[in-house]
Design brief:
heterodimer, A: 363 residues, alpha/beta, Dna Topoisomerase Vi A Subunit, Chain: A, domain 2, 6-stranded mixed β-sheet, 17% strand, B: 590 residues, alpha+beta, 4 domains, 18 helices, 14 strands, flat
Chain lengths: 363, 590
């Protein structure tokens, strides 16, 4: 029988298992030599997080921390991390998925109780830092709420579905971006762009108004701040299928930042790669749109304004577009939601605004 | 105005000491029925312990309290109290007075004893008589072939014993001791906790005593001795000049057989020798020396002879000839020999001059019997002012000693940690005293919101008026956090003050006054034991920390080994025994 070429997902899980074995083997060797086991990993303290203009995302600096089992204050988190590594390798080996909440409870079966959920989450982040893999690579997912719709055919790799294909237009509510979708291979697509949308209502409107056909686009619902799995998925659509990505959010500092995290990532994920899509573009709602389209508005609150001032100091917001929009927001002191276009009729956003925006961004 | 020209009717009447205390029984601690029963037991137990101490035998005291008339609703009942000891016993002719006469006793001497006034025991009996009007039974023997039994009452107005019956029995077994039995009214059930606390603390501070108590319900409380070793008995001592008053001097003058003040001072005062006596009397202006002009040639010869005879005098005066002295005598205007020698030998110390004159027989002091009243007053005043008396020594005191104190605390409190300290003897107002302190931690000591404080004076537990006591004030003033001590710890602090005169504030012997000298000694004593407690607590904390460390390592290291083995895909876990051992090594240092 002719051996099929290995898929990228399979390749990745092999590498993960190999690295985890190395991680354990290293500790094993240290103990064999009669030493207290230890690991060294990049420090995640704020003074070691830098924005890299080259990589267009946050990265960790040179500083590293040594975790040793000899240190009485380290030994507990150290043990927890080793356990997390063991647990992750079991998940990957058995091709099971899990959530952060699962991890918290599973630990109790090994008498490794965590004090609370944040402690357990923190240990998973430690493991990410020490191994360089994202927790999604270890099949640990957060609660999912984002979705995708459009002409993309995927092939599952999860047990029981291997080889099965699905076209993502098959369900009119969209398909949830969950573990099995994230680990699937891309078979084929007829789309030439990705449109990411912040809000569920608009996502449904776009499907109803057949935006995917009219604009030949894959529609992604971020449902607020995009989960890491979704960011990683957008990255894959951009890199593997070479689809340009356009992001539509509410017209306020929080909407801007949803787009920015998809584009440039967050400081919290500075130890990870592959979660950002630097070439993605934010399409609005801009502050200037509020003026140009005479949208119904709410006044900016004090918190909004404070957030805008924070963004002016944020190294990710150095582009002209961002600077200009922040300035305009601060000038007009108003914000508008995506739904605000409904004042001109329910289809106005699809018929008028979207084509104009896509053209403006050179799609 | 009424009764002008008519004499107002005032009756003057002498009352006996017994009558006085009958009328003022509050000041002796017989305030109410529960206090009275407590005070009665306490006074008699203390007499018994003192009497055994005097004989240097480990005391055995048996106390029985039984109900004669049951307690009414008011709580007052009539009780029969019997106390038996193995003490010295009382000779037949002293028995009636010892129990039937207030202020008669063997304790009016300057050495440490539990009681001081000879009042307590008789006072208890007096109280029993006035509340029940029943006679007292006394049996006693000094270990001779006879036991004497008396049935008697006190004639309160005349302060005389009233003997109702007397018997003499043969003492085949050579028993020695005293049994006292009488009835009294009281409220035992309200006094019970104090009585038991008193006995417990007495047992603590008298670890060489066997004390048994049978209460009205027939319950036996045993406080068994932990040792037969007793502290060395105190020796009787003379009065210290700082502590005397005019009355004391007058009494001494009446009994003394010394015919001059120099000898009088030496004979009757504590730590006063020839030198001190001379210097003091000179300071006080009681020394007379002849006028230089009247000195005869043989006197001069005597003076020179004395100088050459004593090496020290020879060295200080140098070579002196009769000729020189005689020449000086002719010229001098001095009125006495001291001034004369002082001006002739300006470099010689006045004390040395006094010494010379005394040795040569030129010093005259008055016959104490011929002192005029104003002279006696001056003498006493000068005694208080003279700065160079030696401090009293502590041979008249009988502190418990660190070993016995430790034994007593171990016996009654069974603590986890104990530190005891005996301070060096010190004095206040001419009275010697010694402070003993102890701190005990854990064991049977209850955990309360505050420390347990045991106060003792001359081996008597002090149970009332704690807040006013100097020890409690000192304890409150200490910053205990410095010693890692918190008030919720099971901690007992013990302070024992022994003195020939404990500075009580009241006749009831309940708390010690704030004398600065006493206070300082208590403070330093407590600090010393507190420091040792601090060391103990620090070490314990360190050990606990090491134990926690080890627990943590032995919990997590095996897990790391197990998960790493799994991750690495190995079959056998690495050996972590060496690692655990290296952690354990820390612990052994503690």
């Amino acid at each position: 029988m002719k051996k099929e070429p290995e898929s990228s997902a399979k390749k990745k899980s092999k590498k993960i298992l190999k690295d985890l074995r190395g991680f354990g083997g290293n500790l094993y060797a240290q103990m064999e030599k009669g030493n207290f086991p230890w690991v060294e990993m990049p420090s995640r303290s704020t003074e070691n997080i830098f924005y890299s203009p080259d990589e267009r995302q946050y990265i960790l600096g040179e500083k590293s921390v040594k975790r040793s089992a000899r240190n009485i204050r380290h030994i507990r988190p150290f043990t927890q991390m080793v356990w997390a590594g063991f647990f992750a390798s079991e998940l990957v080996k058995n091709r099971k998925t899990s959530t952060l909440r699962d991890v918290y409870y599973s630990a109790q079966a090994y008498e490794m109780s965590f004090k609370d959920q944040p402690e357990s989450n923190n240990i998973i982040t430690d493991l990410e830092t020490a191994t360089g893999f994202a927790r999604e690579d270890f099949n640990v997912f957060p609660e999912e709420r984002s979705a995708i719709f459009g002409d993309l055919t995927i092939e599952y790799t999860v047990p029981g579905y291997e080889g099965k294909q699905l076209n993502l237009t098959s369900h009119p509510d969209g398909v949830m971006i969950g573990p099995s979708l994230v680990s699937s291979e891309f078979a084929k697509t007829g789309c030439d762009k990705v449109i990411a949308i912040e809000k569920g209502g608009l996502f449904t409107r776009f499907i109803e108004e057949r935006v995917h056909e009219k604009f030949n686009a894959l529609l992604v619902l971020t449902a607020g701040q995009a989960p890491r799995a979704t960011r990683h998925f957008i990255n894959r659509l951009n890199h593997e299928l070479e689809l340009p990505v356009f992001i539509f959010t509410d017209g306020d500092p929080w909407g801007m930042h949803i787009a920015m995290v998809i584009i440039s990532g967050s400081a919290n994920a500075a130890h990870l790669r592959g979660l950002t899509t630097p070439d993605a573009k934010w399409g609005g709602v801009y502050a200037t749109d509020i003026v140009d389209y005479k949208l119904p508005t709410d006044p900016l609150t004090d918190v909004d304004i404070k957030r805008l001032h924070e963004l002016t100091r944020d190294p990710r917001y150095t582009g002209e577009l961002w600077k200009k929009e922040i300035k305009t927001f601060l000038k007009i002191r108003k914000k508008a939601e995506q739904e605000a276009f409904s004042r001109y009729g329910l289809t106005y956003i699809v018929d008028e605004y979207l084509p104009a925006k896509l053209e403006e961004m050179g799609a | 105005m009424e009764g002008r020209g008519k004499q107002a009717l005032v009756t003057f009447q002498e009352i006996s000491p017994a009558d006085f205390f009958y009328r003022n029984r509050d000041i002796a601690g017989f305030t109410n029925p529960s206090r009275a029963i407590f005070a009665s037991i306490r006074e008699l137990v203390e007499n018994s312990l003192d009497s055994a101490d005097q004989m240097n035998v480990p005391p055995e005291v048996y106390v029985r309290l039984s109900e004669e008339e049951s307690a009414a609703d008011s709580g007052n009942g009539v009780y029969r109290l019997k106390i038996m000891d193995n003490g010295s016993g009382i000779s037949a002719r002293h028995i009636p007075s010892a129990f039937g006469q207030v202020l008669f006793g063997s304790k009016y001497t300057l050495k440490q004893a539990r009681g001081t006034f000879g009042l307590g025991g008789t006072m208890s009996i007096l109280y029993g008589q006035i509340t029940t009007h029943k006679p007292l039974l006394v049996k006693s023997s000094t270990g001779t072939s006879k036991i004497y039994e008396y049935k008697m009452m006190i004639d309160i107005q005349r302060n005389r014993p009233l003997i109702l019956d007397r018997k003499t029995r043969r003492n085949k077994e050579k028993w020695r001791g005293t049994i006292v039995e009488y009835s009294l009214e009281g409220d035992y059930y309200r006094a019970m906790s104090k009585i038991l606390e008193y006995l417990k603390q007495t047992a603590l501070v008298t670890p060489y005593a066997d004390i048994r108590f049978v209460d009205p319900k027939g319950r036996l409380y045993m406080f068994s001795r932990a040792t037969k070793k007793m502290p060395p008995p105190p020796t009787e001592t003379l009065a210290h000049p700082y502590g005397v008053d005019v009355e004391t001097i007058q009494r001494l003058i009446r009994v003394t057989n010394r015919r001059n003040l120099l000898d009088f001072m030496r004979k009757h005062f504590h730590r006063v020798g020839q030198g001190t006596s001379l210097n003091f009397l000179d300071f006080a202006g009681f020394i007379k020396t002849p006028k230089p002009k009247r000195l005869k040639p043989e006197d001069v010869t005597q003076l020179i002879k004395t100088i050459s005879k004593h090496k020290k005098l020879r060295n200080t005066f140098g070579k002196v000839t009769e000729k020189e002295i005689k020449a000086a005598l002719k010229k001098t205007k001095s009125q006495n020999m001291i001034d004369f020698l002082k001006s002739s030998f300006p470099k010689v110390d006045r004390t040395v001059i006094l010494r010379l004159l005394s040795s040569a027989g030129f010093v005259r002091t008055k016959n104490p019997r011929k002192l005029k009243p104003n002279e006696i007053v001056r003498l006493v005043r000068m005694m208080k002012r003279y700065p160079d008396f030696l401090p009293p020594d502590a041979s008249c005191l009988s502190p418990l000693g660190e070993d016995l104190l430790r034994a007593g605390i171990l016996k009654e409190l069974k603590p986890e940690f104990i530190a005891v300290s005996q301070r060096k003897p010190s004095t206040y107002a001419g009275h010697p005293f010694i402070v003993e302190t102890a701190i005990a931690y854990g064991g049977d000591i209850p955990k309360k919101d505050d420390f347990v404080v045991y106060r003792f004076a001359n081996r008597i537990p002090l149970l009332y008026d704690e807040a006013s006591d100097v020890s409690v004030r000192v304890i409150r003033s200490i910053n205990w956090r410095r010693y890692k001590v918190s008030s919720t710890m099971p901690l007992a602090i013990l302070v024992h003050v022994c003195s020939t005169k404990v500075p009580y504030k009241t006749v009831g012997k309940e708390f010690i006054a704030d004398r600065p000298e006493v206070k300082n000694e208590i403070l330093n004593g407590i600090r010393e034991v507190a420091r040792r407690l601090h060391t103990f607590l620090s070490k314990r904390e360190h050990r606990a920390k090491e134990k926690r460390r080890l627990t943590v390592f032995s919990k997590y290291l095996p897990k790391i080994a197990r998960f790493s083995t799994d991750l690495a895909g190995k079959n056998e876990e690495p050996d972590i025994e060496l690692l655990l051992k290296s952690v354990r090594k820390y612990e052994e240092g503690a």
